[in-house]
Queue: 3 jobs
Job 1
Amino acid sequence: LPVEASLELSMQAQTSPEPVLFVHLSLVDINTTGGPFKLSHQFLQPYFPRGGLGYVKIEFNIAMPQKASKYRCEVEKVVRELFKERCWSRLVMAITNHTDNDCGDPFTGYFDDQYVAAEIFQQFLDVLLAPWTTMIQCAKESYIWCFSCGALVNNVVSFTTLQKSVLKSVSPSSNIAFTTVQFQPNFTVHLILAFTEQVLIENYHIAHAFPHMLSQSNKLGRHTDVILMMTDALAGNLSATRYFQTHIDYRPWAYHMPIQYPDCGIVDAWRATTKHRVYSFECKNQCCRKLLTFEQLAGSQLLMPGKTGSSSWMAILCTSES
């Protein structure tokens, strides 16, 4: 049988038939209207005309024991109903939350009419995800998108605790987190739609797809770095890779260029040169002439997907836990 058609959109001549369940866990009273997670579910709907695609959103307020117990009972009921419907092979979860900018701890809900934070392990992830453990373990693939401010991963203690708790408690296939302090989830729309297309539809492994996903999200790199945590349940370890964008004028080798030189205060201050992959910037002020130089971070690599003449995504392995 001769094949005369061409592959118009993808080099992957298959689509995944596996059922997909989206679970959105949102801190109480956070406005998620128009968010990218719901959009990704809607993007998938035409691919499942006979069912096999689900979406659940649950607000959580687990700041007090009785509220945590109420949340657990609610989730257990939802999980029972979902299992009655079918076995969900692929589970995509999102946690939309705020974090304490000082210690990186996520918020759990209200106490005395104020948001309160709690330690990641036992007081947060263990309570929030424990009712979903069976569903995560039964899924062939599971992904957790952490739509929260960057203090969660920028603080060394909270980031280390996050990795250990993910590995020891629920062990999803992958976790995605973001580093900017004032994180805006809507800026991730191109990234999560690329994930939906390349991972959920075309069935690429997320580690292979991630550089290509980022290539469709160049503006996201101006807002935040992205961290991909991958778990290997059989080996019992977790690796975390940080992806960041470099630009020859504004973010050489991922270092942020100041808008003005702090000593002389001149704006639009820089005159740039490049030699042997080292970027040098000299202040234009005749009375200043200070020089800044930037070299590529040791162990980092440029990613070819999405590379332009002036910018590129880069990757560096930041941690490995076991």
Note: The chain is about 25% helix and 30% strand.
Job 2
Amino acid sequence: MMVGTVMYALVLARITALVTHSRVSENVYKSRYDELCQYMRQYRIPGALRERAICHLASRYQGKWFDEKAILMELNEPLRREIISYNCSNLIKKHPVFKDANPLYLLELLDKLEFECYQPGELIIGIGTVGDCMYFIEKGDVEVASPGYTQILSDGSFFGELCVMTDITKRQANVRALTSCRLYSLSISSYEHVSKLFPKAMHGMETQAQQLLQNLGTSIE
């Protein structure tokens, strides 16, 4: 009887802690939401732009605010990487370039990715701008458009690789979100770090980058 009472008390305490933590993150989100609204009112941000900003906040955080980087940095490296790998499991499953990849390579790569989200109609990269990263699509559709070239990319694709994997420094196309998009970006410095450790693992993406270069009719010096 005593054991049952103790177990019940422990379970109840755990549930209470979870509910309390959930409320804390919800309250922080509400505070951030209110700050954003006050900021936009203060600077008289146009209604359409204001709505896009609010939609972005809601889509990215889904009603709860977490400082993911700070939380994960509290963990040791193996545990942090395992959690990141789990969070990115859909990304890994959908991307052919990750199929049968070296697990150590995947852990190193995933640890360098940065999550981003975009709403329909938003410009993700603009033609002629300096590129400093590439993107992997976890979920959503984007349109890649340049003079004489248009392509729709969706789950399991990546884009922006020319400025990361070749000598080209400026974007060769506009990329715009057609739907709500969940993306992961990989910076040039992170790519160089991973490619030095696992040069063969990057071969598939680098081959696609060269093929895209040919399709665009651009040459590398």
Note: Residues 2-42 form the longest helix (41 residues).
Job 3
Amino acid sequence: MNEATSTTENVDDRFAEISPELLQGIPLHVCFHRGRSLWNRLGGTRSGVTQTTRRYSYFLSHAWAASSWSKYLALLVHFNGVPAAMAAFLTGLILGTLTSLEIMPFASWMPILAHFVPASVLFLWQDLRRILCSEPMVFLDCACIPQDDDAVKAKCVRGLSSFLGRSDKLVVLWSPDFVRRLWCTYEVAFFLKQNQADHILFIPLQVPTLWFLIYLVVWITRTTLYIADISGLYGDSIVGYLGIVGG
């Protein structure tokens, strides 16, 4: 028996440690519908969330101590950020074309719409996407490993390599304490042994959080200016100011 055959059999043995009914995954859009509660170890029932699957598009690796809100925002920005940016560009392009060609006069609600459309895409893109194509299945330990059955939980933890071996990409939700967690480093090491490094995606949790805070400040500012405009607090000058900020 050559070395390649031996390696294949060893991998198959690892897969055999987990019975098919324990290979549970969650559709990507569920990660956004459940919000931070899905990441909470004591987040309540998760019945009906998981589905039996044979492969995972993404294995989500994270440290329990990291903020659940940061993880949620990181996934939103990573998976839905580009479509949201494209929606913002197209909305601005359409509104700008209509006003520049004098097809439609500029109105103070236009900048608000330019924020509302991409924000909607940011939160709902996966729901729109799954209408047209198959939805990615992901592995998230706190949802895919039973938390209320210690025996099954221990079996899944011992067979963690089976989940990793069936994953196309490893998404690391990186926080400062990630490398200090043994299971986190094990997940990266095992996956890297079986796959190329470009199949691992590192997402620093601080960056999406900062992005959301900046966007929230801009949104609140624009909304406040719009309310002030329609209330007549600043007169016609506010319309011009909104146009400058929107540009």
Note: Strands lie at 24-27, 51-52, 56-62, 137-140, 167-174, 200-204.
